[in-house]
Specification:
- It contains nine helices and eleven strands.
- By secondary structure, the chain is an alpha/beta fold.
- The protein folds into two domains: 52 residues; 234 residues, P-loop containing nucleotide triphosphate hydrolases (Rossmann fold).
- The strands form four sheets. A five-stranded parallel sheet has the order 6-7-8-5-11, with helices on both faces.
- α6 links the parallel β7 and β8.
- α2 packs parallel to α3, α5 packs across α6 and α6 runs parallel beside α8.
- The longest helix has 24 residues.
- It is globular, with a radius of gyration of 26 Å.
- 27% of the residues are buried.
Amino acid sequence: MMARADCPKCGGTGWVTVDMAGGFAPMVEPQSPPRYAPVALREAALCDCTDEGRDERLLAAARIPRRYTACDFDNFEVDNYAGHPHGPEGEAWDASLKQARLVTQALARDYPLAGECGLLLMGPCGTGKTHLAVAALRALIERGHTGLFYDYRELLKQIQDSYNPANQATEMSVLEPVLRAEVVLLDDLGASKPSDWALETVGHILTTRYNEKRVTLITTNYLDTAGSVVATPRSPRLPSGQGVASVRVEDALADRVGHRIRSRLYEMCRTVQIEAPDYRKEIRQARS
């Protein structure tokens, strides 16, 4: 709760008194039978000014980066590729985006009735995985739930920094919010090269959240097959039939996080693979 310092109603305290329905209390004078007199009842209530900027404060508390605070389901674009010059490939890419949005919206809408199953959004860079995951987190926060956003590499760095004696933060002070948050969004899983320490740390986080039946939303650029071929348009300005190329993703997700963690993700998350090119790189640059 945060009140406006200059609020004329509450004087910056965040609280006001409001009238309630009148009640009755015994009269002071002894009576037979007893007589009752009406009394006015008042109670403290939150001032309206405490709601101002509430959503912004909640998003900031959730650690959502400013770049993503405007991400929601309505502004997630799903008609980027259909038609010339991409043809059938473009229609398939758009269908993949629509399906990913549909599944992510359903999780945000049905939580917690849908159980403790989270979401693993897989696909190339620039396909909107983080946008969708943030949209789900925002929707849950707006419904009164709590959640936290963590970048995978930044989280590992924070934990490593806690080992420095000069750092006041402890490993547990960094890990505790990740382990206990109602919903956690872990962005860009596998972005760092795996080490035994990193795998052990991430495994501990995911296993703890799984055992406590807490929902985790995860994005990753790595697929389940090493050497996967990902489509990418060379340029939407090329004639039909010349606008599609491909790139090879050498590592599989299990190569980046270990087979044990990948197996755990099958249990705790529904996997949604987005099959579309890097929209940020190819389409927006070509339109500029």
